Amino acid sequence: MIVRKSQSDLEKMRRAGLLVHEILHKLSAMVTEGVSTWDLEVAAERMVTEAGAKPAFKGYYVAAAGEKYKFVLCTSVNNEIVHGMPSQQRILKAGDIVSIDTGVSLDGFYADSAVTVPVGPIDAQTERLLKVTKDSLEMAIEKCREGNRLFDICGTVEQHVENNGFSIVREYVGHGIGSRLHEEPQIPNYVDPRNENPRLREGMVLAIEPMVNAGKPDVRVLKDRWTAVAKDGSNSAHFEHCVAVTANGPWVLTRP
After folding, report:
1. Which of 56, 65, 120, 232 lies at a C-alpha separation of 20 to 30 Å from 202?
2. Rounded to an integer, what is the distance from CA 158 to the centroid of its chain?
3. Is residue 2 part of a domain?
């Protein structure tokens, strides 16, 4: 069942969303050669705690991994797509890219967002990967209008990414969000005719998150049971926003 939020619910989600934005903004500024992904984790946990919020990911049980996630952030470097785990041993190098994904719970509601950040200058192909992925998210956000359908969002991402020569990760999808981190509907970044295609209604909140590989779409999960990587070793980018469908059009809750 898709849960539609009241204006009061949306205001609470907005506060959570602005906190996530602030955290990601500050972490992005920390990304530089020599910083470890653990440094980012420590800073993120401090910011969540100081804000009186709870981390959305830490303690979240995932059946496929068979355990609860242990961190505030997912930090996925280069060919890592999602669910990369912060580590003192993972030192960022010039030319890397790092996807930082995090969420919080505040006043009973969740927000979730992700950015992919370059470590200094990056090559032109990787720069284009980040731009195309980010642009596909912005284009999808514009489709979050009452009366449109879910496939308008999914197809917009798919078409833009594939027209630019990159590939859509199919194993991981966006999701509804609200009083739970993951709600209906699932939001693939491609059109799957087997899925339901609900009409968008006022009060729906969607976490849209294109995950895009520079090479082929195939995915492999590492022995840690969490980290998903591009099977061919190509770089992967990930951007995410929480978007409310309102009478006045899309309202991105996870940015000012």
Report:
1. 56
2. 16
3. no
**Could you give the CA distance from residue 86 to residue 74 in angstroms, rounded to a whole number?**
7
Provide the number of structural domains found in the chain: 1
pLDDT value of residue 46: 98
Q: What is the pLDDT of residue 250?
A: 98
Cis amide linkage into residue 185, ω under 30° from 0: yes
Q: Are 19 and 111 in contact (CB under 8 A)?
A: yes
Of 176, 219, 168, the closest CA to residue 196 belongs to 176
* Model pLDDT, residue 198: 97
Amino acid at the residue 17: G
| DSSP classification of residue 44 | H
Query: d(Cα 117, Cα 96) in Å, to the nearest integer?
Result: 9
- Below-50 pLDDT ranges, the chain: none
CATH number of the domain encompassing residue 227: 3.90.230.10
Q: CA 122, CA 183: separation in Å to the nearest integer?
A: 36
* pLDDT score at 35: 98
Which residues, 6 or more positions from 196, have their beta carbon under 8 angstroms from its beta carbon?
Answer: 150, 185
Could you give the CA distance from residue 215 to residue 229 in angstroms, rounded to a whole number? 12
Domain range for 34: 7-252
Q: What is the DSSP letter of 101?
A: E
Task: Cite the DSSP H helix spans in 143-175.
Answer: 150-163
**Whole-prediction pTM:** 0.97
pLDDT at 105: 98
